[in-house]
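Can't attach files on this board, so I'm pasting raw text. These are the components:
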Amino acid sequence: MSSNRGTTCSAAMELFHRVLDGDLMEATDRQGMQAHLAVCSECAEKAGQLREILDLLRGMAEQPMPDDAMREVWQCTVRAPGVRTHRRWRNWRFAAAAAAVIFVTWTGVRLYPVPGDDREALRAAQEVRMVLQLTANALRRIEEVAFRKVFAEEVSPALQKVGILWPRAPRGRDGNEG
Amino acid sequence: MKETDYESVVAMHKDRVHSYAMTILRNPAEAQDASQEVLIRLWEHRVSVSVDGARSWLMRTTHNLCIDQIRRGRVRSEISDGDDIVEARPDAGPGPQRLAESGDLRRLIDCALDALSPDDRAVIVMREVQALPYDEIAAALDVPLGTLKARLHRARERLRTRLYRAGVTP
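---
Top answer:
Structure tokens for the assembled complex are below.
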């Protein structure tokens, strides 16, 4: 073990690790370490190796999560049955309502009657009413489908757990009877 | 954390979690299972985990899960332990550039990391590969800052010795 101005090899290397850590240190400690490394080839070589190794480690690429593994994570979390059903349904309802308003407005403009032509006005009004009726029916249908989905995926299993409904035969992950 | 936050947090950190699990477990299938379990646990605990604290939570949970698996002896490394490579080159080797060109460098570093204890490997990977801040690593590993730094210094020295013997450093 060599020393320089009272700094031993082990002390110099300990200080060098603190430099690698990014620690602030006393000027005297830093100078002592630098003076030691200047005269101790063994420690200087070790310090150079350490720097080189850390550069290599910092350049290592990440090992990305495989896509199929992530797909399973999403299916167990944000895309699990029931998790975002309501949000999606709300989005659907909003989109459907917006589309209906746009369509009705467009229809109204297209069919706006020539002033004084009562038969044309009546026909236009009937067509607009028909469009509104179709839109309302479509929204009701979407609501029924959403309700059935929520019932089948959440309400029914909960009722089965408390014994109100007979449980169905167990199914495999792919939907086959198992 | 909201559901939409969960998606962005996972998208940001999933590769970090998987890389860490891979480095600690050294088994691709086990690392994938562990990563999936961690990300699903985050979903289950999303109410109590903030977006800012998510990275620390993920690293702590990944580390604990991996260490549990190792302690239970469930993990069998599918990657060569590299002792043959490391010990076969006592003299100065070809240097990092030639090794990198031949594709051996990553394997040698992996082997040298593999030779460390899981705790030493953990600090090296979190600090030197993933560049996480010290306080976050200390929280993830549940050790005081002083202990963490002492462990890091020791792990660096062990890694240096292994790679020096393997001829990675001149």
